[in-house]
């Protein structure tokens, strides 16, 4: 563990530091990859302040949105109400290494599932794959490093390449199709307004 705080304490403190942490817009790579999918049931793991879940709900998806932080979930629920889609989103609090939402989903999304606290990421992503319904899609977006110039980076946090992500899922042979496996650059504006370039990776798999 890279911090002595419990994971829920860490993330509640993180979200309590500012009235809004993220931009309120869905991740561009996420939106691009989901735009062509037919709406169905979606699971958003690590939903934060709810931008992706709300974007999905606005496009006809029924969403189960999960985060460890009750502060983030409360904020996200308020945003969903303001957007008029509160009835399409089920907000759930889970520490994903300990509990996981029930059901099968046409889309399971794990966007930037990284943490400075203890996080059994590989195990969580395997459970995410198991929650994908036949014909459904698993979409994983991750960073490939810390932001340029970030102070006190944690060397024990590993950022896997796309091939590593797929290998770590240990998927049964012949039951999945790889749709996207790529590294890519992404422009990002930090909370202090400074623009940076990030290196991210996208993995998109379909269950046959």
From TrEMBL:
<dbReference type="Pfam" id="PF13649">
    <property type="entry name" value="Methyltransf_25"/>
</dbReference>
<keyword id="KW-0808">Transferase</keyword>
<dbReference type="InterPro" id="IPR041698">
    <property type="entry name" value="Methyltransf_25"/>
</dbReference>
<protein>
    <submittedName>
        <fullName>Class I SAM-dependent methyltransferase</fullName>
    </submittedName>
</protein>
<dbReference type="InterPro" id="IPR029063">
    <property type="entry name" value="SAM-dependent_MTases_sf"/>
</dbReference>
<dbReference type="GO" id="GO:0008168">
    <property type="term" value="F:methyltransferase activity"/>
</dbReference>
<feature type="domain" description="Methyltransferase">
    <location>
        <begin position="43"/>
        <end position="136"/>
    </location>
</feature>
<keyword id="KW-0489">Methyltransferase</keyword>
<keyword id="KW-0949">S-adenosyl-L-methionine</keyword>
<dbReference type="GO" id="GO:0032259">
    <property type="term" value="P:methylation"/>
</dbReference>
């Amino acid at each position: 563990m890279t911090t002595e705080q419990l994971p829920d304490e860490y993330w509640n403190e993180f979200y309590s530091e500012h009235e809004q942490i993220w931009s309120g817009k869905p991740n561009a790579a996420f939106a691009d990859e989901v735009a062509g999918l037919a709406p169905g049931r979606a699971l958003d793991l690590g939903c934060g302040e709810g931008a992706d879940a709300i974007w999905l709900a606005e496009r006809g998806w029924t969403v189960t949105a999960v985060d460890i932080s009750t502060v983030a979930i409360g904020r996200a629920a308020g945003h969903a109400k303001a957007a008029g889609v509160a009835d399409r989103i089920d907000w759930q609090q889970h520490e994903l290494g300990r509990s996981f939402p029930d059901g099968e989903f046409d889309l399971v999304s794990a966007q930037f599932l990284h943490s400075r606290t203890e996080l059994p990421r590989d195990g969580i992503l395997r459970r995410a794959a198991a929650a994908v319904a036949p014909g459904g899609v698993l979409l994983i977006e991750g960073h490939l490093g810390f932001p340029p110039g970030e102070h006190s980076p944690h060397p024990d946090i590993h950022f896997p390449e796309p091939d590593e992500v797929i290998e770590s899922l240990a998927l049964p042979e012949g039951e999945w199709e790889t749709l996207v496996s790529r590294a890519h650059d992404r422009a990002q504006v930090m909370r202090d307004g400074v623009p940076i370039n990030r290196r991210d990776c996208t993995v998109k798999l379909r269950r046959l």
